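Structure ticket #2291
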Amino acid sequence: MHRLWVLGACIALVYPLSAIRAQSDADRLAIEVAATRAMLGHQYNKGSISIDPVEGAEGHAPSNPGVGNLRSAIHTEALAKTLSASVRRYSDVTRCTNDRTQCAMSGTSAHLVLSAPTIRGDTASVTATIYQNSPSKRQLVDYETVLLKLVRRIGGWTVVKEVQLGIS
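Resolution: structure written out below.
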């Protein structure tokens, strides 16, 4: 139910909290889809991808998996389904030696960790890290962390700027 309040010369439209939350959930999903698609452009080899259900740290490189809040299962599954990805934790897609000095990815070509989006009106930002097996022997898993700036356009959310925060 929408209510229109007239306060002097100001008009305020009050929306029920459920409508605001539904819009922000849809925006969040659209932002994360756009961010993930942008990061897949950094992928060495095309193939299967996995999305971490735990949010990464905003503005940090690498956006370490498993340190943030757990996304809702419904939201994470919707994100994965939209991207034809699986939902897996970083620890589930890496195989390490006994002393954990050497780890390699297994069962996925790329693993993505996304921070919670920061939304301010028609602009948003999200920190995304892509992990993938390295083409060199120096280390087995490479990462790249990018701060993505997005704007809302008629067709949806679009990445307009990428700032590299770290790369291995």
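Closing remark: The mean pLDDT is 83.
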